[in-house]
Design a protein that fits this description.
Keywords: Cytochrome c-type biogenesis, Disulfide bond, Redox-active center, Signal. The protein has about 170 residues and is an alpha/beta fold. It has seven helices and seven strands; from the N terminus they run ααββαβαβαβαββα. It has a single domain, classed as Glutaredoxin (3-Layer(aba) Sandwich).
């Protein structure tokens, strides 16, 4: 019984730490984070800076997810609602699937084709994810019209602060 309780405490502590909001909420991306390479479904390699610059002047919701992530899959209906409620917002999807084949399968399986998708071929540990203190997925960030970070940390698409940030930015 003591072993089971100790195991429960260890898991509970891990989960609390894993989902802990970062202490510093960043408002700009570092040069290293923007230089991080990502891959399109067609295999084209771009930097995150290039992708964000394509959308400069627009509001972006960045959704970091993976097909193996149960929390991401559970969040899809709420993420779809967020997208539907905000038709003038651009949604970018960054996948942490482990292989190119898994990325392609996830796009098909979860009806992600037709959306703007990218894949971190270097995996979870990369300069962008390290910079944004990625400790849980799904993870949502709001990027403003100047490509600054307007909302740094949300782990659910129905986080009320996410919608408040979008509303505030669209009223400018």
């Amino acid at each position: 019984m003591k072993k089971a309780f100790a195991l429960f405490l260890i898991i509970a502590c891990y989960l609390c730490y894993a989902q802990e909001s970062p202490r510093i909420l960043k408002t700009k991306f570092s040069k290293e984070a923007l230089a991080q390479k990502i891959v399109t479904p067609e295999g084209k390699i771009l930097s995150i800076g290039q992708v964000l610059n394509k959308h400069k002047g627009k509001i972006i919701v960045l959704d970091i997810w993976a097909g193996w992530c149960q929390d991401c899959i559970k969040a899809f209906p709420k993420a779809k609602e967020l997208e539907t409620r905000n038709p003038n917002i651009h949604f970018l999807f960054f996948s942490l699937d482990r292989t190119k084949e898994n990325f392609a399968r996830s796009l098909e399986k979860f009806n992600m084709k037709g959306k703007e998708n990218y894949w971190f071929s270097e995996g979870w540990k990369n300069k962008f994810n390290n910079y944004i203190d990625l400790n849980w997925i799904p993870r949502y960030l709001v990027i403003d019209q100047k490509t600054d970070i307007a909302h740094y940390y949300a782990i659910t698409p129905d986080d009320p602060e996410l919608q408040r940030t979008l509303d505030r930015l669209t009223q400018k």
